Amino acid sequence: MRARIPHVIGYGLLVAEACKVILGYILIIRFQQPLLGALLSLIVAFTIQITYYFKLLLEELKQKAKWHYVKEWLKGSVANIYNIVGNQIAAFIFIMLFIYGGKGARSNYGAAAQIASVITYASFLAFALYPKLLAEKSREDITTALKMVLMFAIPMTVGAMAFADSYMTIINIVYKDAWPVLVMLAANSFVATMSGFFSSVLFGVERVDEKAKISFRELIKSRLFIVFSLPYFHSVITLPTAFYILVNYAQNQPLQAAIYVSAINSLACFTMFLILYAIVRKIVKIDIPWKNIAKYVFASAVMATALFIIPHPTRIYLTLIATAIAGIIYLALLMAIDKEARLLVHSIWQEIKFKVEGIIT
Predict the structure, then answer these.
(1) In the predicted model, what is the mean pLDDT of the chain?
(2) What is the model's pTM?
(3) b/e per residue 118-147 (b: at least 16 CB within 10 A)
(4) Separation between Cα atoms, residue 52 and residue 63, nearest integer Å
(5) pLDDT of 283-300, one tens digit each?
(6) FRET label pair with 17: which of 100, 104, 114, 251, CA 20 to 30 Å apart?
(7) Which of 165, 202, 173, 181 is nearest to 281 (CA)?
(8) C-alpha Rg value of the chain to the nearest Å
(9) Among candidates 237, 219, 242, 244, which has minimal Cα distance to 273?
(10) Are 129 and 139 spatial neighbours (Cβ–Cβ below 8 Å)?
């Protein structure tokens, strides 16, 4: 599905997130059921998403299984499991945050992470890059996808930083003072988005599994294994550092503990990103669109300035209105100075019209 119709994965994500927000608002806000509402919202949203994907794959699932493919898939999954275990070890830093920082430390971090994670959605704009690179290794495709991701990731990151206190208030007024955590996690989410992008490039150009047959020896020698090992390097940096800082400087200080852990984790993630970027650059030369990036940064800076100087609201609807206006400022300015942005908006509008006309007829 990702190779043939990658856009439908985005549709499924959109449907799931919309259901999650609507149900969450009804159950958590209206009916005052925070735990039950959160669980039901997630379960229903993911069920709808899985059902949608299952319907799209129904014809393929009816076909006869090719067990030699399954065998190679299982062999390759060992590398994924190795990577997942590494990520789980790295996540132990959050257990340390709760143990040494106090009950409020994890909630301060978690509240900021909920807002900052929205930035990573920009990575889905490059979702089709991996299968595209498998079919043909084109530097132009990499640059085009990078432009798309940065066009949205940069303003989302800058906006979250400029309006951090208001966004934290959306969740609960008690988190307003934890805005420094959101500032650091917004930067970290941008780095995570870029890491996801360059990982897609690496997976697309690495040929260790090109013939649908995976050798453990070749896999271990490949650059993929180095990337799968990055979470372990990450843990070597973060776990002892966080333990020392939390025990000696932030024990039972929830806000300080959340800030320290955010800083430590963000710096480690940035270090891992630099390693990943160096690995990718050795495989394929990437043309960084500096002129486009400069335009995105300029438009984002104007937008962020507007957000920073206006009174920061504490009500949800006012915060959402300010966010919408900021988005309009960014897009309007970007369309005025960037031709590719104008073409993108025109293409999106034409696609929407085509879909609507198809539904009507």
Answers:
(1) 85
(2) 0.85
(3) ebbbbbbbbbbbbebbbeeeeeebbeebbb
(4) 19
(5) 888 889 999 999 999 999
(6) 104
(7) 202
(8) 22
(9) 237
(10) no
